[in-house]
Write a structure and sequence with these properties.
143 residues, mainly alpha, 66% helix, 0% strand
Length: 143
């Protein structure tokens, strides 16, 4: 479920920073960079982290610290967008459309969908098994 499989946390964060640097400088973007820049632009509250250079690369965002991990949050948006674009798991595109209407925008629907996605991914990571798509869709249908 990852667009960046095999990359380290530091490499992923550098991708966000480079995409935003190029976007801000009005330089041409590769398709993936355009996706990154779009999700960053929708989250101005995270610009400080994206623009913080090396500080962001090693930053820790433990749950007990009370801070949202901006890179995880934006990464989940990207994962959801990929799922919707490919309709995988099957039916998620229709669910996203329904939730977008219900909550007023695609972005707001994604925010509602992030928690179920994160929960399913966390459970898969802990169990060492692939994410349970049926469970995931069921959680989304309850929104």
């Amino acid at each position: 479920m990852s667009l960046f499989a095999g990359e380290s946390r530091e490499q992923l964060r550098q991708r966000y920073q480079e995409a935003w640097r190029k976007f801000s400088a009005q330089q041409p973007l590769e398709p993936l960079e355009a996706q990154l820049a779009a999700v960053i632009a929708e989250h101005p509250e995270y610009l400080t982290w994206v623009e913080s250079g090396r500080t962001a690369l090693g930053a820790e965002f433990p749950p007990e610290g009370g801070r949202n991990n901006p890179f995880l949050h934006m990464g989940l948006h990207l994962a959801l967008r990929e799922q919707v674009a490919t309709d995988r798991p099957r039916g998620i595109a229709a669910l996203h459309a329904r939730l977008s209407r219900r909550f007023g925008s695609a972005h707001e629907a994604e925010h509602r969908m992030l928690e179920p996605l994160a929960e399913v991914l966390w459970g898969a990571q802990r169990s060492g098994r692939p994410p349970d798509e049926a469970d995931y869709l069921e959680r989304l249908q309850r929104l």
